[in-house]
Structure formats: structure tokens, C-alpha cells
Amino acid sequence: MSAESKMRKRPRQWRIGVVVAVLFSLFCAQPGCARATDPSQMKSIFVFGDSLSEGLAISPRQAWPMLLVEKLRRIGPNFRVINASASGSTTEGGLRRLPTHLDHPIDIFVLELGINDAFHGIPVEQTRANLQSMIDQVKARNPSASVVIVGMQFPIAAPDSEYVAAFVKMFGELAEKNHAALVLNLLEGVVGDPKLNLPDRIHPNAAGHKVLVENVWRVLEPIAREVGSK
Predict the structure, then answer these.
(1) Which of 12, 71, 43, 83 lies closest to 226, judged by CA?
(2) Which residue in 16, 64, 71, 160 is deepest, having the highest Cβ count within 10 Å?
(3) 164 burial level (CB within 10 Å; 0-12, 13-18, 19+)
(4) Phi, psi (5° rounding) for residue 196?
(5) Catalytic residues, which ones?
(6) How many domains are there within the chain?
(7) Which domain holds residue 81?
(8) Based on C-alpha coordinates, what's the Rg of the chain?
(9) What is the CATH classification number for the domain harbouring 187?
(10) Residue 163: how many CB atoms within 10 A of its CB?
(11) In angstroms, rounded to a whole number, what is the distance separating the alpha carbons of residues 78 and 75?
């Protein structure tokens, strides 16, 4: 089975083209709790990715973007996580989808796209241009938004070492150019471990997503604390 076919889409009952948004609050008796979760005061973390962020073959609540909710509770009740990821999405597909999500404020933009481009053999420079365009669109609407770029190592062996090197390097270069934070490798600690992956050996299972959220949180936590204090 080819890598492209392995990056299969979620069955129909899971492929709901709906953004998963979780609004949460701390459970407490103080009167201030209700005010703290006033929608107008909420800080929005917008995750835009592919199956690695949507959570292929697991419950949406088990995917790493939704696992952020519990961690964000430590900072305060004024965050919401919007997971607009879609299985099979390339950066070109992301460019088509993004405008429908730009009508609402974004405080932190977490961009996790690109690996499907690689599986389709899309030139790295095209992938880079598409990712840059998405960042530009978000920043145009949300000039003060913080950007987190989620980097990727290949989850399977690839024959073209030059392509792989350019692909991996691209994420760091984009982060530097845009003064963005960088998750160096979303799949760190997960690749190659059968206990953390689905049978396809590419997509993390629910246990694997618990590792992914730690990889992201190491980078995201200080940003969320800063944004939450404003």
C-alpha cells in the first residue's frame, strides 16, 4: 500500500466537515467564574491541520487539540480551542478552507499542514508558499495573533533524501521568517512505536495523541500564558 493511500480519510461518520469548538470553564463557586468565561473575553486557539490533528479513527475529544483543554485550565478559564483540521488535507486544500474560518478572532494560530503534500510529491517551494499564504491571511485579519508552526519528520522511510531534508528544513525557515514558535517534530516519541500508532503505522492512536499534546504544549504553554494575561 502506498503512503498516499495509507493517509486515508476518516469514514463518513467521522468526516463531518464541522469545526470542533470546545468552550470550557473551571468549576468553582466564586461569582467571578461566570464573568471569566464571558465569550467576549475568550482567547481563541485555532488549530488548522490534517488527519494528525483531526485524530483519524479516534474520538475528536481524544485528538491532541482537544487534549489541550485540560492543560489550558491550569492557566485560566478564558480559552477556547477550535480544531478546524481535516483528514487528507494538503496545503492547497488548506488554502481553500481557511477563508471560511477567518470571520472570528484568532489569538493563537497553530498551523499543522504539509505532510500530505510530501506524500503527493508536491514541490517543497509550493508547500512553503501555501503555508506562508495561510499565515499572511491570518495575520492580515489578526495582526496581534501568535503563530505556532508544527514541524514534521517523515513517519515512513522516503527514497528522496534531498526532498526530505528540504521539507524538514522548511518549517524552521518559515518560523524564523514569521517570528513564529516552532514545534520541531509533532511525531517525536510516537513514530515507530506500535503501541502509539494505528495499524497503518502512520497515524497515532489515542495513546499516541497523549504524546503529541505534550510535544505541542512544551512550545504552546508560554505563549498561552502570555496571551491569557492580556
Answers:
(1) 43
(2) 64
(3) middle
(4) -110, 0
(5) 51, 200, 203
(6) 1
(7) 3-228
(8) 17
(9) 3.40.50.1110
(10) 15
(11) 9
